[in-house]
Amino acid sequence: MIAYKLEILPALRAAGYSTYRLRKEKILGEETIQKLRDFELVSWANIDIICKLLNSQPGDLIEYAPD
Predict the structure, then answer these.
(1) What angle do CA 12, 30, 49 make, to 5 degrees?
(2) Report field, pTM of the whole predicted structure over 0.70
(3) Are the C-beta atoms of residues 61 and 8 closer than 8 Å to each other?
(4) Residue 30 and residue 20 in contact, taking contact as beta carbons nearer than 8 Å
């Protein structure tokens, strides 16, 4: 199972990206934001954007845990 290592939205908020700003500046769409709220996985394109915003690597955000 692939899961997030950290809560993405609070991490983005700490980096200066509120959900309002993410939507207003069209950085991430509402559907993606809702998936992050529900801890559902998002597309690799969105992981790429999140990594840029947080100056991180995908491995910093997600991990594989055997079922």
Answers:
(1) 45
(2) yes
(3) yes
(4) no
**CA-to-CA distance for 54 and 66, rounded, in angstroms?**
26
Tell me, rounded to whole angstroms, the distance of Cα 57 from its chain centroid. 12
Amino acid at 12: L
Report how far residue 39's alpha carbon sits from residue 36's, in angstroms, rounded to the nearest whole number: 5
- Report which residue type is found at 24: K
Digit-coded pLDDT (tens) for 22-56? 999 999 999 999 999 999 999 999 999 999 999 99
E strand spans, the chain: 2-4, 62-64
